[in-house]
Model the fold of this input.
Amino acid sequence: MKTKKGTILNKLRKSIIEQENGNRSDLKCVKCGLNKFLTVDHIIPVFLLEQFCLKDEKYNMEDNFQYLCKFCNQQKGSGIDIRNPKTFDLLEEVIKRAKSEINS
Done:
């Protein structure tokens, strides 16, 4: 997926590149703790945000991002991890924003 410049998603992806280049070492996969092969994962998947007509949120909904290594990200796929404590709060926020979009 192409990342729009100036977005939160773009900033997070740049931080991964910085770590790969040895300029930082603080990032790690939230599931397994690996600090290599990192990706930025959407906790609430992009397809669901698009279903709720929240296209900008896929780039800028700050709480919806987490670092996962590519292995954990492949296991999660485009699903929703209900064991993640953030998932239900984020789903409520997505519904709230979608209702706001409909009513405006």
Summary: Residues 87-103 form the longest helix (17 residues). The first strand starts at residue 38 and ends at 42. Strands lie at 38-42, 65-69. The helical segments are 8-20, 46-51, 57-60, 70-76, 87-103.
